[in-house]
Specification:
about 80 residues, alpha+beta, binds zinc ion
């Protein structure tokens, strides 16, 4: 799994598991193109804010539900065993 790095504006960063304090850190979201309080890495030196990541989680849930609901083998809330 890709490492998750985090930038916290005005406080510091966690990069490769290394925590470092720095007032100079500025977190920017590559998805909504905004300066944010905190952002997590999404690969290739790009970072995203919590609302953008949450939107994507929601979109994944909705898409999976809409595409698999009603299928015998695709119950979205988990496997039924037995
Ligand atoms: Zn964002």
């Amino acid at each position: 799994m890709a490492e998750v790095n985090v930038l916290v504006t005005g406080a510091g960063s966690v990069l490769g598991g290394e925590v470092s304090s720095s007032d100079d850190v500025k977190a920017n979201c590559a998805l909504c193109d905004s300066a944010v309080d905190v952002a997590a890495s999404i690969g290739d030196e790009r970072f995203a804010c919590a609302p953008c990541l949450r939107d994507r989680l929601d979109a994944m849930s909705v898409a999976r539900f809409r595409l698999t609901a009603g299928r015998p083998s695709g119950i979205p809330w988990g496997k039924v065993t037995g």
